[in-house]
Amino acid sequence: MIMTVNFQYVNTDVSETLSQFTKEKLEKLNNKFEFLISAQVYFKHDDKDHQAGKICNIELSLPGPRIFAKSNEREYELAVSATINDLRRQLEKRKEIYKIY
């Protein structure tokens, strides 16, 4: 099943390349965890944070409570990777709960 992905860019320019990069990462996650329904992806830029400031928030819809992760890195691609790794850990735990029942 194909997961719906919605993007929002806050205080930063819309990037088709970044959207495509993120979609590919999310598709890999969706292939492993087939119960995912949709993803809300927010890219934000924090002008005050000079070390990082490239923020990626991803909220996943799936059966049960939603899963959310956020990363703040110096590049959006790093933030996406860190956020997806965090989501993967949360999904692994959720999958264990499903196996019990």
Key features?
101 residues, alpha+beta, Double Stranded RNA Binding Domain, 4-stranded mixed beta sheet, 2 helices, 4 strands, globular, RHF/RaiA, RHF-like, Sigma-54 modulation protein
Number of helices: 2
Helix content: 40-55%
CATH architecture: 2-Layer Sandwich
Major sheet attributes: 4 strands, mixed
Structural Rg:
14 Å
User: What is the class in the CATH system?
Assistant: Alpha Beta
Structure report:
The protein has 101 residues and is of the alpha+beta class. The protein has a single domain (4-100), classed as Ribosome hibernation promotion factor-like (Double Stranded RNA Binding Domain), CATH 3.30.160.100. 42% of the residues lie in helices and 30% in strands. It has helices at residues 16-32, 76-100; strands at 4-10, 38-45, 54-61, 67-73. A four-stranded mixed beta sheet has the order 1-2-3-4, covered by helices on one side. Helix 1 runs parallel beside helix 2 (76-100). The longest helix has 25 residues, at 76-100. The chain is globular and about 45 Å long. The relative contact order is 0.18. The mean pLDDT is 90.
